[in-house]
Write a sequence for this structure.
């Protein structure tokens, strides 16, 4: 019922899955958005302070598609996928829990560290 190191480590992989791994690395049996449990879980984390406010999908895509020239020799960065669903309700609050346990949740994001939310790009 609290965020663990495993959640943090898995988040960094899941947040990249549909944007990069699905197409770039051909891990394309299913998209993350097609698994309702994992999709709700990662959206819950994304909407938790300290997670989604650190994600820059444009940077993630540009990095993978432009750096891995052996996989993508043209350096073309795709426009998709549609990433607008990250801020949709996940309904995981019904599970209860205290994401930060007895710890202190992070404060507001400083202006110089703020990433434009994907639904405002």
């Amino acid at each position: 019922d609290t965020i663990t190191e495993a959640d943090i480590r898995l988040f960094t992989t899941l947040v990249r899955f549909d944007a990069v791994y699905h197409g770039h690395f051909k891990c394309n049996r299913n998209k993350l958005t097609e698994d309702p449990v994992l999709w709700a879980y990662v959206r819950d984390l994304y909407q938790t302070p300290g997670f989604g406010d650190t994600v820059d999908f444009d940077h993630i895509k540009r990095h993978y598609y432009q750096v891995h020239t052996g996989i993508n020799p043209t350096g073309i960065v795709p426009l998709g996928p549609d990433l607008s669903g990250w801020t949709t309700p996940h309904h995981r609050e019904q599970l209860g829990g205290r994401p930060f346990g007895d710890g202190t949740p992070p404060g507001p994001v400083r202006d110089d560290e703020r990433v434009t939310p994907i639904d405002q790009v």
Q: What stands out?
A: Residues 55 and 115 are 7 Å apart (CA to CA). The chain is about 35% helix and 0% strand. The chain has a mean pLDDT of 88.
